[in-house]
Amino acid sequence: MRRLPPWIVFFLLALAVLMLVVGWEERHEVGYVPVVLGVVWLLFTAAAAKNVLADEEH
């Protein structure tokens, strides 16, 4: 399976942080769903970043 390019992982990380910040600020109006989605997105991004940072000589 091919890995994601580093620029995509960077944008995924930015999206996860944005979802967490906005979700936390608006939690009284929209609930905790954006915060939960931000955490899930952050976990997905961390898994993808692990492959980007890994050595390519496998």
Notable features of this structure?
mainly alpha; elongated; 58 residues; single chain
Structure write-up:
- There is one protein chain.
- The chain has 58 residues and is an all-alpha fold.
- The chain has one domain (6-53).
- Helices cover 78% and strands 0% of the residues.
- The protein contains 3 helices and no strands.
- It has helices spanning 6-25, 27-30, 33-53.
- Helix 1 (6-25) packs antiparallel against helix 3.
- The longest helix is centred in the last third of the chain and has 21 residues, at 33-53.
- The protein starts with 5 loop residues before the first helix and ends in a 5-residue tail after the last helix.
- The model has no long low-confidence stretch (mean pLDDT 84).
Q: pLDDT average, as an integer?
A: 84
How far from one another are the termini?
13 Å
**Beta-strand residue fraction:** under 5%
Number of helices: 3
Helix content: over 70%
In the predicted model, the low-confidence regions spanning at least 5 consecutive residues are: none
The count of DSSP E runs of length 2 or more, i.e. the number of strands, is: 0
Tell me the Rg in angstroms.
Answer: 14 Å
Count structural domains.
Answer: 1
Structural class: mainly alpha
Oligomer: single chain
Shape type: elongated
* Helix and strand element order: HHH
